[in-house]
Amino acid sequence: MQVDEIQSVIRAAGGGDNALPYAEALCEKVNRIEALGQCAPLLAQLRTSHEEGDFRGRVLEVNFADCFARKGIALAYGIKQGMPGDIDFGWKVADYSLNIESKLLGQDRATRDQINAQLEDKGMSATFVDNDIKDVARLQSDLMQKASTRKFNPKPAKGIVNIVAIDVSELQLGTVDICDCLLAAGGNTLAARHCDPACLRESVVGAFENIVPEELRESQRSWLGSVQKLAEGVPHPRTYLHGALFLFREPKERAALSYELRGAMVWNPALVAPEDAKTICAALHDVIPREK
Q1: pLDDT for 59-95, tens place per residue?
Q2: Over the stretch 225-252, which tens digit does the pLDDT of each residue have?
């Protein structure tokens, strides 16, 4: 792919002049992935992206795949588990087959519009995120939606490790941290082991938590009935999703189309033994450095 072709794709997807300087670096990544020969469908979808959200999602996939390509690792693309849809990436690590579905989670439009209006009116923004519960709920909700049984088989075969990877860089005006991710995936049980008590939220139930009913607070019952509400007969993702990989990019700007990624991995303790988690994390963080 040539730089002018990338520039045309950027413009077609609504990218402005502030995005065009990234075209050359993005082109380099695309060509490196293409040389490995495993992600042709991804690159074909990138070329035909004409909507901003779809384009930015493909760009995340390119940057993610390039982390591996720079290590000489060719990810498989479009993994099938016998369900109607397919999963973005496949990667073999030791005896495990990692199936990874990716998601770019942007700041909600209302908050973004509020900031932009303030910038236009006053040249500065006075918007602060003083209650992160909404973003923790949205993070968890998107995590669970991305783990849909339309793509993931609720009865994974032996050796399959199902992971949802979410880019959280834009949440909370770019200030989202690991503790928010720990809350969304592991709840207060996990966050309490790694975070200051001020970071805990008593109403939250983690996606991988399974609290017995008699120990639930009323606020947690409400959380389960709203954030984690599932259609009748649909299995809970914690029964087949092995882990969540939270991605942090640098630079974080929305216009940035080529960036470095760091990650924080949260495992589902009901499905992944500590020794297995250690093996996979060692390989994963050799490719995507650990977020500090």
Answers
A1: 999 999 999 999 999 999 999 999 999 999 999 999 9
A2: 999 999 999 999 999 999 999 999 999 8
Q: What are phi and psi of 97, to 5 degrees?
A: -110, 105
* Secondary structure, 3-state, 57-111: HHHHHHHHHHHHHCCCCCCEEEECCCCCCCEEEEEEECCEEEEEEEEECCCCHHH
Q: What is the pTM of this model?
A: 0.91
Q: How far apart are CA 91 and CA 227, in angstroms?
A: 30
The closest alpha carbon to 266, from 286, 287, 284, belongs to: 284
Q: φ and ψ at 139, to 5 degrees?
A: -60, -45
Residues 6+ apart with CB under 8 A from 12: 49, 50
- Closest-CA residue to 172 (of 122, 206, 135): 135
